[in-house]
Amino acid sequence: MSASTAPNLIAAVSEARQWDRLMELAKLGAITGTDGSPGVNRACLTPLDREARRLVISWAEGLGLAVSVDEIGNLFLRHEGTDPAAAPVLTGSHMDTQPNGGRFDGIWGVIAALEAVQAIREAGVQTVRPIEVVAWTNEEGGRFAPGCMGSMAYAHYKPATAWDAVADHEGVTFRQALDEHRKAEADLSHRPLGGKPFAYLEAHIEQGPRLEAEGKDIGVVTGIQGSRWFIVEVRGETAHAGTSPVSTRRDAVQDMVRAINALNALMTDPTDVLRFTVGQIEVMPNTSNTVADVARFTIDFRHPDKELLIANGDAIEPTIRSAVKSCDVTVTERFHALPVEFDPLVTDAVQAAADAQGLASLALPSGAFHDAQFMVPLCPTGMIFVPCRKGVSHNPAEYSTPGQLAAGARVLAAALVDLANR
Ligand code: HGY
Ligand code: MN
Ligand code: MN
User: Fold this and answer.
1) Where among 337, 352, 377 does a domain terminate?
2) Is the pTM for the entire model greater than 0.90?
3) Residue 336 is labelled as binding a ligand
4) What is the pLDDT of residues 368-405, one digit of tens each?
């Protein structure tokens, strides 16, 4: 039986149950946006993160799913198949949010996966392969840069200890936060890092405007553009703002501005495909009447074309060095994710499920990076998008309707059963 034609499966996906769980989770780290929108600030490896995980674990245990965690804190909720030895189908996303985040980015993919598995069990639909719901550690990279640490470690793209020394704004290192987190979750069964899934399918809000603008219900995601993150430190010398001659200053802020202006020129793209963002700036000593001796800024550079991503990304450091006048500079790359294409085995399953349910779909690439990016070398991988209002995300105004999210969960359920019976 092709799952997409299993009406009882589709009917078993509950719009209300999924929405209620999302609203329950949105209370954990609730914030209010400047426009009054309800958002969420729930950083990874915090007590709030653990409270949200315990809530999801309670729902999963209520379903009879087996709960486990690995050494970097990735959380797995396993639905057994008729062949427990078969490679599982993995599905999920992340539970951490941006500091000024929304109620759906990441967390919907985890709750949609839980909803899909609950519908599969309630509809009595058999799957040969086990299905594992996963919540990846630190996808956002907001507290500890870069993002996707959990999926990178799972895929052995980087060792799980690669980011031990990375510190947050309070000076807490990733290793300290992870050790505290693992102690708090010591009651959960442990599993070795990594695995060999049969396929990986992630549901996520689009975080862009296309599905809404084109009146589509489902995005059949074709791939993810490349992303490169850098941290730049400009070091000069503090001086008195009233007495030190400008001609002899080693002003870190002025050199940072020169560097960013030169990078803007390098990254100019009249076709508006290239994405270049300086999102975080720190200045020391950060007083109005002292010339700054340290300026730190982040670079988030993205492009769908591998050659251009490499060429322009490699030009960042020389461009900065030729732009600064009197300060020393260090440029460190923190994240390097090449563009990926998703596998037709998964994208076709998503397309078939959307078609069978009479949903309007659109094939499109992802501008945002996702944990799926690091699963591509491991197994056939794909994603499902649902529309979000005006494409707004990383903002409390982020919104998808209960109906849009339920349609996504129904396509996910059907595609998961399709894949788990391959
Ligand atoms: O930054 C990103 O693309 C993702 O939303 N964390
Ligand atoms: Mn996300
Ligand atoms: Mn995000």
Assistant:
1) 337
2) yes
3) no
4) 999 999 999 999 999 999 999 999 999 999 999 999 99
